[in-house]
């Protein structure tokens, strides 16, 4: 098959999944990836994915550069030159609209598959400045997929669409995200990885850590960059935790940090799936997270991690202490987490689901 994949190139989960999917598919199919920059996961050589950069022309009249149009033009170009048969967009805004525009401009029966990832539905997608066109574009997609049952449900509740939504879960490379040895250092490592947006509640991560560090020797690794970083730094200073919290910034390879961690915190306000938690679980790191969105589909409370209500810092801190204090419990949860990943969330299980979806869509 000749497939075009559209995504954001940044550190976010949708870009990671799109790039990993492209790399796996390229072993059997001709894959063209379109974005405004080379995605971080496509930096290594030898993956066989063709990358196409969207260049957005500027003009003094434009207060905002029209990326949606530049992307649509790039898709048209790709279909004409490479005879791509199907466009798979990751994150609906604005990618689905651009793909639809390209299809209409060409007047050809190009198929469009949209994978909904999270805030394109439950946050940005609901913003009145986008909602009508997001809803229309979803309806025009030949297929819609969501990364969890919870996201599927939210989409059907909040948008007036009569499309089937297929749930295809995210996946992790379990060979790369793998623990190498058990690290029983006296000072335990707690980790959090995110894009430091309000929806991630990184301030809660620091507050939970502030409670735990009073009882157990530990250190907090904060991985990522984003708009909330300066308020998180301020809270760290206010709580006098500067010597215990490390800001590691964006890193290409989070597996290096996760492998030596003892606990992963994800107290998000909303989380359609929680790819960062899945990567931790693959490294046998138990997760304490909020009971929200798709997280209960990934983490089984009391089996491979713990879930608490959003903002219940006391409970999250208590679970964290239990995990850090009790090595037997920690190993048991970690082992179950890894088993869960291998049983449900590997590329070997998920990539064929996308291939089958493409085949069914092209046969339509
Ligand atoms: O929706 C976002 O905030 C961005 C998106 C991304 O590109 O990182 O994250 C969402 O998609 C991920 C990959 O499917 C999921 O693992 C995240 O849970 C989801 N984020 C939210 O729902 C907040």
Helix content: 40-55%
Average pLDDT score: 95
Can you summarize the main beta sheet? Answer: 7 strands, parallel
Instruction: Output the CATH class name of the largest domain.
Output: Alpha Beta
Tell me the number of strands: 13
Sum this structure up briefly.
This protein has 364 residues and is α/β, with parallel strands linked by helices.
Description:
It comes from Aerophobetes bacterium. Residues 22-147 form the Glycosyltransferase subfamily 4-like N-terminal domain. Pfam families: Glyco_trans_4_2, Glycos_transf_1. This protein has 364 residues and is of the alpha/beta class. It folds into 2 domains: 2-171 and 346-362, Glycogen Phosphorylase B (Rossmann fold, 3-Layer(aba) Sandwich), CATH 3.40.50; 188-344, Glycogen Phosphorylase B (Rossmann fold, 3-Layer(aba) Sandwich), CATH 3.40.50.2000. It is 41% helix and 17% strand. The protein has helices spanning 13-25, 67-82, 95-106, 119-122, 131-140, 149-158, 202-212, 229-238, 255-258, 275-282, 295-298, 313-325, 327-344, 347-363; strands at residues 2-6, 30-35, 50-53, 86-90, 111-116, 143-146, 165-167, 188-193, 218-223, 245-249, 263-266, 287-290, 305-308. A 7-stranded parallel β-sheet has the order 3-2-1-4-5-6-7, sandwiched between helices. Strands 10-9-8-11-12-13 form a 6-stranded parallel β-sheet, with helices on both faces. Strand 8 (188-193), helix 7 and strand 9 form a beta-alpha-beta unit. Helix 2 (67-82) packs across helix 3 (95-106), helix 7 runs parallel beside helix 8 (229-238) and helix 7 crosses helix 12 (313-325). The chain is globular and about 65 Å long. The mean pLDDT is 95. Bound molecules: ligand GMT.
């Amino acid at each position: 098959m000749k497939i075009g994949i559209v995504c954001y190139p940044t550190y976010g989960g949708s870009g990671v999944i799109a790039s990993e999917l492209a790399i796996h598919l390229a072993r059997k199919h001709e894959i063209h990836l379109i974005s405004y920059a080379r995605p971080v996961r496509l930096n290594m050589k030898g993956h066989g994915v063709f990358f196409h950069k969207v260049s957005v022309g500027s003009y003094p009249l434009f207060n905002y550069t029209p990326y949606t149009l530049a992307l649509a033009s790039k898709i048209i170009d790709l279909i004409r030159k490479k005879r791509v048969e199907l466009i798979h967009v990751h994150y609906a805004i604005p990618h689905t609209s651009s793909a639809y525009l390209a299809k209409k401009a060409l007047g050809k029966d190009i198929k469009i598959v949209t994978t909904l990832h999270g805030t394109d539905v439950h946050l940005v997608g609901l913003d009145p400045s986008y909602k009508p066109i997001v809803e229309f574009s979803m309806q025009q997609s030949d297929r819609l997929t969501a990364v969890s049952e919870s996201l599927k449900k939210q989409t059907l509740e909040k948008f007036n669409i009569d499309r089937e939504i297929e749930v295809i879960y995210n996946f992790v490379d379990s060979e790369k995200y793998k623990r190498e040895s058990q690290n029983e250092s006296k000072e335990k490592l707690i980790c959090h990885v995110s894009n430091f947006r309000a929806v991630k509640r990184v301030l809660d991560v620091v507050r939970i850590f502030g409670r735990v560090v009073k009882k157990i020797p530990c250190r907090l690794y904060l991985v990522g960059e984003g708009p909330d970083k300066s308020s998180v730094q301020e809270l760290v200073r206010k709580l006098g935790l500067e010597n215990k919290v490390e800001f590691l910034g964006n890193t290409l390879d989070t597996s290096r940090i996760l492998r030596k961690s003892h606990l992963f915190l994800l107290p998000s306000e909303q989380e359609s799936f929680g790819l960062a938690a899945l990567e931790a679980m693959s490294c046998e790191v138990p997760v304490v997270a909020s009971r929200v969105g798709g997280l209960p589909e990934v983490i089984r409370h009391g089996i491979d991690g713990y879930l608490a209500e959003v903002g219940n810092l006391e409970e999250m801190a208590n679970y964290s202490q239990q995990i850090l204090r009790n090595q037997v419990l920690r190993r048991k949860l970690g082992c179950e987490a890894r088993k869960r990943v291998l049983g449900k969330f590997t590329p070997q299980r998920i990539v064929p689901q996308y291939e089958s979806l493409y085949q069914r869509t092209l046969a339509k």
